């Protein structure tokens, strides 16, 4: 009997979770039961992925950097990676601004709905604004200072310190390159072995992925806001979804097809489990181990490229978040009656691009950065209260976009460096079957 492919297993788990969640809503005790007895399994699944995120980055990035012949190769890879991430981010924000100006979803929100939602979410909005103000009060070079940790052990204790960890690991890898091969070999062998162990741990965790996403989607169903809120914000949510769907199913596959020759089916089949996991967890960091495994094993990008491009992307590349920030900022401005000029929207492009670099790869972090984007164009940041009700499902979709963008850039960088398998080999599709 042929084994069901991983992405289909995850889809079955997602659908089952939604159905079970809807079923339990029919009972007065249903929500409490799901929260108490089903939700913890989703949390355990996410925690297990986060558990190996930092060890994976350390092992794979040390291996990837140390396998390079000289510093010039690292410089070439780094410049291309950062450049491509910035380009895709600008394209995503511009697409979002185009859509929101055409649809104008803000005109569908009635005054009484706006006031009711502002009052309901006032406390949460205030806490996000306070957090954003703390960020704004930092010095212009504080972000640069934060990249260099004063204690790598302390930095490695939190997934929120990805940039610090990446800096240390790249620095460590450079040190390995610069010493004699005979002395570096034991260190490289250790990290090679560690990397293989971590990849096997990912395989084990992914056996439980369908059950994890089942628990996450069942919980989302019982904790979702009431339907009238979704109707009031339908135009806004639809605008975001259309933009994200265009990136997912048109822009990225087309770019990959043009520059690497991979077919739409090959690309989407290869990255599908990572997309579905990103959708379920709303966290690029939690999905990173699976993203790296899919890009290397199923899309043919060599390990040293994957080890560098994907962790950096999970930290600074947030195309889905950037598109959403552009749409949300203009939407809130429309609701408040603020007419944003072309120069205002160019400021949104710049601010959202910079904000995406500082957005942590964790659920809901984009909301905090949206406050900074709003204030950059003089819009009352309290307006973020308007979008809280539908932010969770949209966060799930934009995380899937972020992960797909990381995979796309990894393919482009790999192709530009000659580090990608030939997509035209006859047994390419057979390459997937053992892993699925």
From TrEMBL:
Bilayer topology annotation: Multi-pass membrane protein
Keywords: Cell membrane, Glycoprotein, Membrane, Symport, Transmembrane, Transmembrane helix, Transport
A single GO cellular-component term on record: plasma membrane
InterPro entries, per the entry: DAACS (IPR050746), Na-dicarboxylate_symporter (IPR001991), Na-dicarboxylate_symporter_CS (IPR018107), Na:dicarbo_symporter_sf (IPR036458)
Subcellular location(s) per record: Cell membrane
Protein's recorded name: Dicarboxylate/amino acid:cation symporter
GO molecular function: symporter activity
SUPFAM superfamilies: Proton glutamate symport protein
Main location: membrane
Gene3D superfamilies per record: Sodium:dicarboxylate symporter (1.10.3860.10)
TM spans (from-to): 6-29, 41-62, 82-103, 162-179, 199-222, 229-252, 346-374
